[in-house]
Every structure is written in structure tokens, then in C-alpha cells.
Amino acid sequence: MGGLEIRELECFLVLAEELHFGRTGERLYVSQSRVSQLIGSLERRVGARLVSRTSRSVRLTPLGQRFRDALEPAYGALRAAVEETRSEARSVPGPLRVGFQGTADDRLLAAVTAFQDRHAGSSVEIAEIPLSDPFGPVHRGEVDAAVVLLPVEEDGLVLGPVFSRQPQRLAISTRHPLARRAEVSAEDLADVPLISAAEPAGEYWRRAHAPAATPGGRPIPSGPAVSTLQEGVWLIAANRGGMLLCEPTAAYHRRRDVVDVPVAGLPETALGLVWHQDHENARIRAFAAVVAETVP
């Protein structure tokens, strides 16, 4: 049989109930001639008459009766599946898995609380995602959405609200000569091996946070590659290199043998909420709306 047309099947089932072309058209909000067209098309697909029509009556042929009996359960199951999926897509209550790089600060936790307060029955499960794989958990469906450092240039991912724009700071060992400075310039990065995220983080994303050259074109030496932010902090303390961090992250990871120095001449960092376009639902959209409203 050729391509299945749901409208033809629906028309046939309504006609099987009404046994009247006019009333069938009224129920389907189409003309009587359109009902005739749909039934005729269906009969051509199956290769036999399903409806017997005279000037006085409409009835199903024996084959049409058997077709109706076989079709009704399948059509009912199809409609139920569509309605169930539609209801799920519109439903907010339920768990939402949100990934964070590093740590969720007070502002993001406030957004989580606001989301749960606003949507009864909802809950947010927080999971840490690796520094070296910011988008993998979203692609693989391990989390529903993730708060990540920009930029995002991933196929299939939706970038929602962008927030927490922060100046960059250079985290370095207290033994490094630049540790005694109140501020460094972007050109000073040529004197610091920059610790970067290991694979599978994309090259564009790694270079955004550990550039290969200063704005003036001076090469910046490459430091070790790490999978987690904590690994990077340990290497900084060991004076193996420095890391460019946003101000809240630098403050959260401060320790006696590591300092963070403001860097002039670099763009601000920003966070964004991302999710996969194939998994988008009302719950994710509702959480994104709360984040956009509550996190500056």
C-alpha cells in the first residue's frame, strides 16, 4: 500500500459511525465532497470498495466492516500515544538533571530554588560535569541541560539564557613573579604556561579559555591539559602553569599557595544554559525562563 494518510483513516472511521456523508463532514469540519474524496482515495489505496452508497443509505461493505474492526484499536492506540506525548511535552513537574562545570554558585542555586517553588512537583538534580567535556553529557543525555562557559558552537545544542558576565583573572602560584602584581595585562600571559582542558573539549573551546597568543600576537606557552578544575588548581599550586578563571570561580578555589590577579585587556567570560534540541521539553523551557529572570 502507498503512503498512509491518517486523514483518510480518520474520515473512514467517522463515516463508519455516522453512515452519513453530511454528518461526517460536519464532525471533521470539511465539506461532503471532501469526505467523498478521502474515502475514494482510501479505497484506491486498498484496492477495493469499503463503503456502499446509494441515494437512500450508506453502509460498509463486508470488507469495510472487517477493516473498521481491525483499524479501530490501532487508531485508538495511535491517538493515545500522541496525547500522552503531548501531555508529557507540556508537563513541568518531575525531575530535571542540570550539569554544572566546577560549582553552582549562590545565584544559580537561588534559581534552582525559585524553579522548584514555582513549579510544584518539580525537582532539580545537580551533577558536576568535567571541565574537559562541557557538552558531552548533554549530547549523551546524561543531563537534561548544563550551565557551561561560553562559547558554544555545537551542532544540535540550543543556547538559552546567557548570564554571569565576569572579568577574567589569572590564577597562579604564589611563587610566580606575576603573583606580586596588583594587575597584569593580556600581554603578560606570554610569560605564563596556560593550563587547558584536555580532550574531548573542542579546540575552539579550549583556545577560548587558554589562548595560544596574546592580543598583540605574542605566543603563550601551553601548560598541562587537565580533565577537572581541581586538577588545574593543584598544578597551579605546584607552579606548573596558570589558568584563566572568572572571578567567582577564582574566589571559590582560593588557597594559601594560589593567588588570582585581574587581567586587563581580555574579554569577559560568560555562562550559558544549553540543552539538546532533540530533548527540549516544557520543563527545560520553564527552568531556562527562571534562570533568565533570576540570574544576572
Helix content: 25-40%
Q: What share of the residues does DSSP label as strand, in percent?
A: 15-25%
The CATH class of the largest domain: Alpha Beta
Q: Specify the structural class.
A: alpha/beta
Strand tally: 13
- The name of the CATH superfamily of the largest domain reads Periplasmic binding protein-like II
User: Which regions contain 5 or more consecutive residues with pLDDT less than 50?
Assistant: none
Inertia-based shape: elongated
Largest sheet: 5 strands, mixed
- The end-to-end distance, rounded to whole angstroms, is 57 Å
What are the key terms here?
D-Maltodextrin-Binding Protein, domain 2, Arc Repressor Mutant, subunit A, 3 domains, 296 residues, 5-stranded mixed beta sheet, 4-stranded mixed beta sheet, DNA-binding transcription factor activity, DNA-binding, alpha/beta
Describe the structure.
With 296 residues, this protein is of the alpha/beta class. The protein has three domains: 6-90, Arc Repressor Mutant, subunit A (Orthogonal Bundle); 96-157 and 271-294, D-Maltodextrin-Binding Protein, domain 2, CATH 3.40.190.10; 168-267, Periplasmic binding protein-like II (D-Maltodextrin-Binding Protein, domain 2), CATH 3.40.190. It is 40% helix and 25% strand. It contains ten helices and 13 strands. The protein has helices at 6-18, 21-28, 32-46, 62-90, 106-118, 136-139, 203-209, 229-237, 247-252, 282-294, and strands spanning 51-53, 58-60, 94-101, 122-129, 145-149, 157-166, 168-173, 184-185, 194-197, 222-226, 243-246, 258-264, 269-276. The strands form four sheets. Strands 4-3-5-13-6 form a five-stranded mixed beta sheet. It has a four-stranded mixed beta sheet with strand order 8-12-7-11. The chain has a two-stranded antiparallel ribbon with strand order 1-2. A hairpin with a 4-residue loop joins strand 1 and strand 2. Helix 1 crosses helix 3. The radius of gyration is 30 Å and the shape is elongated. The model has no long low-confidence stretch (mean pLDDT 91).
